From TrEMBL:
Keyword Cytoplasm: no
A Pfam short name: MFS_1
Keywords: Membrane, Transmembrane, Transmembrane helix
Transmembrane stretches, start-end: 27-46, 66-86, 93-112, 124-144, 156-175, 187-209, 240-260, 280-299, 311-341, 397-420
Superkingdom to which the source organism belongs: Bacteria
Name of the protein this chain belongs to: MFS transporter
Length: 448
């Protein structure tokens, strides 16, 4: 994204430029992306505590089966998404997605208003929000990968991701305050309103995209075309993309093992449903506070100084030792620290680093293969990991066995992250060499 140099035009833009290495010409796009992520993610996280409380009501055993349904829905939605990408301009379908989420939240909220413990509506909501949060996140980053070049992603993705983290803090904070007054259905209505605001932010960001000085926007903003099922072969034919898919499997497995232990311990320690919602919201508060601080002050600097390889490798290494501590202790306090640390580090470091891995790839791979990895692959891994967790628990093994299993997965995850980081560096170097070579070739008759 190359735009004419101009000073930041808003106080918030000037504030961001002091916190992160943002060039003046990039400020408008960064501010728009920051607030889009803020409202989108605050909308999701405002309703997330309701999802977790529903999960404790459903129960761990039945919830593992719900995750199978979630993975099936994730697979089914990909050809639909591929068809949309192939036929509609991104300036049309990107805002539509937020509108669809808002409508579904309103409909579900109306159902829960009639029956606050409506398991059918609750299960539908659990599946829907579990699929849509990954889907919207993947599409958001796919668009930003078109808007910014590789060097800009290193400098800017950290502070943009902080917008999502700030929204993820704001959402549960408000929900915790208002849920005693408006109930779960009211929280869903509140989340729907935030997604409506996100539509307007998306329109602003699309406007910034269309005004780029070097843009051939009409050519870029066209249907991508191709086969809606193209994501799968794109993954299988590239060892690098397949490696990203397996890296996501590692993230999912570690997350799932901790998630089900968290549900079990919260259910044991907090019999009151409102208290469960509050503890889930407070987990989010702490996680997002740590994440925002890390993303603003650390993520971009670590990526720029040490590279993507460090960004995506050191967190899995830390998780090896964290799982070991949990295996030896088994205490709720230790689990709380491990869960909070893993989530904060994933949002602050692994997520931006993982998105950077896609930057050297072509547009079709970014939209189709990436969304296949981010949604059905992730959710299928969730379902398998949940069944594995149930099998370990059903065999009579306790939290120590689950934790040692998590440590083994984290070790494999770390090795794969290191390999992907090396491949990413090779691809960057290759592309840099090509750009340098093309710059040395002068057209006939050009001045020396």
């Amino acid at each position: 994204m190359n735009t004419p140099a101009q000073p930041p035009s808003s106080p918030f833009g000037r504030f961001l430029s002091r916190l992160a290495p943002i060039q003046p010409a990039e400020t408008a796009a960064v501010v728009a992306a920051f607030f889009l992520f803020f409202f989108m993610w605050s909308g999701y996280f405002s309703v997330r505590p309701v999802r977790e409380t529903i999960g404790t009501i459903i129960g761990r055993d039945k919830l593992a089966d719900i995750w199978i349904i979630t993975s099936i829905v994730s697979v089914l939605i990909i050809p639909l998404y591929g068809a949309v990408v192939a036929r509609f301009r991104r300036s049309m379908f990107l805002p539509w997605m937020y509108g669809i989420v808002a409508v579904v939240l309103v409909i579900t909220g109306l159902a829960l208003r009639q029956d606050a413990i409506n398991l059918a509506a609750g299960k539908f909501f659990y599946v829907f929000i579990s699929v849509v949060n990954l889907f919207l996140l993947s599409v958001f980053w796919s668009f930003l990968l078109e808007l910014f070049d590789r060097q800009q992603t290193k400098r800017l993705f950290g502070v943009i991701a902080a917008g999502g983290s700030a929204g993820a803090l704001f959402g549960p904070f408000v929900s915790d305050l208002v849920v005693p007054l408006i109930g779960n259905s009211g929280v869903l209505f509140f989340g729907a309103g935030l997604f409506v605001v996100a539509i307007f932010c998306q329109r602003i960001l699309l406007g910034v995209w269309s005004e780029r000085a070097d843009a051939t926007t009409k050519a870029e903003d066209r249907p991508i075309g191709g086969n809606p099922f193209a994501g799968v072969p794109l993954i299988l034919k590239s060892p690098y993309v397949l490696g990203i898919a397996l890296f996501v499997v590692g993230i999912s497995c570690v997350n799932t093992l901790l998630y089900f232990e968290q549900l079990r311990m919260v259910e044991e320690h907090f019999p009151n449903l409102e208290n469960r919602t509050q503890i889930f919201a407070r987990f989010d508060w702490v996680v997002q506070t740590l994440t925002v601080l890390s993303q603003i002050f650390l993520t971009g600097r670590i990526a720029a100084k040490f590279g993507v390889k460090t960004l995506i490798t050191f967190v899995p290494v830390i998780m090896i030792f964290a799982f070991g501590a949990l295996a030896m202790s088994g205490a709720f306090a230790v689990l709380t620290v491990v869960v909070i640390a893993r989530r904060a580090m994933e949002y602050a470091f692994v997520r931006p680093g993982r998105e950077m891995l896609w930057s050297p790839l072509d547009k079709e791979t970014k939209y189709k293969a990436k969304n296949t990895v981010d949604v059905p692959v992730y959710r299928a891994s969730d379902a398998l990991s949940a069944q594995l967790n149930n099998a370990v628990a059903g065999a009579g093994f306790g939290i120590a066995a689950v934790a040692w299993l998590g440590a083994a997965v984290a070790a494999l995850w770390a090795g794969l992250g290191w390999w992907l980081g090396r491949r990413f560096e090779d691809k960057e170097k290759l592309q840099g060499d090509r750009v340098a070579a093309s710059a040395t070739v002068r057209p006939s008759g050009s001045p020396h």
